[in-house]
Amino acid sequence: MTTPPSRPAPPGLRHIACATGGAVLATTLLWTVAHILGIELRVGPGGGWPTRAVSLPHVLGITLVVSLLASATRKGLDLLTDTDRASTIWTRLAVAVLLVSLTPLTYLQVSGGATAILALMHLAVAAVLIPLLAPEPPIDRGHDSKPTPG
Hints:
It is a single chain. By secondary structure, the protein is an all-alpha fold. The protein has one domain (13-43, 51-133). It is 61% helix and 3% strand. It is built from four helices and two strands.
C-alpha cells in the first residue's frame, strides 16, 4: 500500500510568531552592532534634503509591519490557491520585494558602514521570513519503491 506524499502545511500562528520574532531580533541585533561600532544610521534622499536618524523604535516598527504584511500575504495566497503553489508564489514575491527594497541603498547619501548595516538588515529579514513562511515540500523518499538489499 502506498501512501501519498504529504503536503507541507501552510504556516500557522507558531510559524508566523517565530518568523516575526526572528526578523525583529535579527534587525535589533544589527542595529545594536551598528550602535556599538559607532556607525551612524541616517537616511535621506540626498540633494541637500535633511537626513533622519534610524532609531531602534523605527527599526522595530518597520520590521514588525513588514513581517505582518508578509504573513498576511502568505495567508491570503493560501486561501486563493493550494499550499504548494502559494509557497512558490510567495517565495518569488518575497525575493522580488527584497530586491526592490535594496534599490534605494544604491543612491542613499550615507557612509559605507551604514549602507552595509542597512543592507544586512534587509537581507536578515528576508533570511528569516522566507524559509519560515514558505516551507519546502517534503522530499519523496520513494516509499512505494522496493527496498535496496543491504
